[in-house]
Amino acid sequence: YSLETYVESRFTCWSYEPFSGQKLDSPNEGKAPGPWEVELRPREMFVDQDKELIVPHTSTVTPCHHCNAKGKTVCHKCRGKKLTRCGDCGGHGHKTVAQGAVLRKVDCGECDGQGKRRCPLCSGSGEETCTTCSGHQQLVFAVKLKCEWRGKNADYIEERTDLPDELVRDVTGKVIFEEEGELLTPISNFPISPVNRASKSLIGAHENSLKGQRVLRQRHNLRGIPVTEVHYEHEGRQGVFFVYGFENKLFAQGLPSGSCCSLL
Ligand SMILES: [Zn+2]
Ligand SMILES: [Zn+2]
Ligand SMILES: [Zn+2]
Ligand SMILES: [Zn+2]
């Protein structure tokens, strides 16, 4: 028996971008919807995915907090001093040059012997454009809604032989029952009652694990996997092996796990 619950979570946070005169969807345009009132659907059911959007009617303009609405901040290279150390002379203002065999100190031509040059980043203004508002001095704040869709899986295996139960999970069997809907009711009329109990408890566990999320859709199915237990005697030794799944996979105790072969 396997159950899949497709769960939707929604989160909101503030987002901002520079205000450059773009058209605003402000609260004056209408009442902002709550996070669960916004229409947002996954592209395809039972596929994990995320989506984001700006909630309608939540955009407001505020002064930029990073530059105090000046549009500019202090240049981070020269820290507002407008000058940086000359890279050519290392800030000494002079260089040592060889004239024949004689070494002479001469003024650095790049900085005229000052050891400092105009800051190349701010061109000597000591300021740079604010990176938060891109120089626009104002920001548009709006509520961003993030939606996450995730599939949660659970299963129950009813298996009474000594075959390790998890082996039947990955093989093909006959689909006995299949159902999909918004919220499922547990299976209750299957002749093997542990299966009915498992259906009830797995569906209940998925419901109880929701934390402010909602179930979008559920599906469950019941598969019958053939398992044949074979006892053999070979050269006086007794043994047992199992054949399981429509693929006729073979399992024998003592074989290293993963070395399953198929019966031809
Ligand atoms: Zn220099
Ligand atoms: Zn600078
Ligand atoms: Zn700014
Ligand atoms: Zn078993």
Automatic annotation (TrEMBL):
Domain of life assignment: Eukaryota
Protein's name according to its UniProt entry: CR-type domain-containing protein
Organism of origin: Macrostomum lignano
